[in-house]
Amino acid sequence: MSDKYTPALDKAIEFLHARYGEPDSGFTGKRSSLRALAHEAGVSLVTMWKASQALQERYGDIKDISADRELVNAGPAHDKTATGLPPVDLPSYQPLWRDIADRLAQDILRGTYPPGEPLPSLKELQHTYQTSYPTVRKALAHCVNQNILEPAHRGYAVPSYHVRQSGMSIVVSGVGTSPGKIDTGSHFNALMQLLEVHCADARINLKVQSFTCDKETGSVRFNDPESDDPTRLYNTGSILGYVYLLVNPESFSKKLLAQLARVKKPVAIVDDLGMIDYYDLRAKSKFIKVFTITNTTGPAEQVARYLLELGHSRIAYITPLFKKKHIWSFKRLQGLRQVYASAGNPDNVVLIQSRGFYKTIALKKAKIDRLTKSYKQWKKTIPEEYSEDFDRAFSDFIKTPPWQAEVRNALKPLFAQALNDRSITAWVCVNDQIALFALEFLEKNGLAASKDISIISFDDTFEAFRSNLTSYNFNIPNLIHLIMGYIVRGQTPAGVRKTIPLDTAGTIVERASTSTAHRLKS
Question: What is the mean pLDDT of residues 290-301?
Answer without folding.
Answer: 88
